[in-house]
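call fold(seq) -> tokens
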Amino acid sequence: MGAESVKVIKVVRSSSAAKAESGAAPLSDNITEIREKAREFLLSALNMLAPEAEGIGVDVVVGEKTTQYIVSCPKEAIGRVIGQRGATIMSLRQVLGAIMGAAGARAVIEIPYYPAEK
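ret:
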């Protein structure tokens, strides 16, 4: 049996001081304004995706560092919001996540669930 090389990986739990040193973005001073602009962006994108649908809205639930954007839309428009294989909603989540990440916060987009009719 030949000599084997062993790679040692050290796992360290991060503290808030370590996060600050690592470059994690602190929560922006104008986070309320950024959250509202992100909500307006999401609502505008949804209205462009399904312009014929009435009743599209976005509610905001604010946590300490996480903001939930709860989408309300009619059943007829949910296919356009989700997109083929979820591509549209995943893209919106990625863009909104980048916007909020730059401000030091997280963003979660929730969409309504309509069970299939049998």
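The beta strands are 57-62, 66-72, 106-110.
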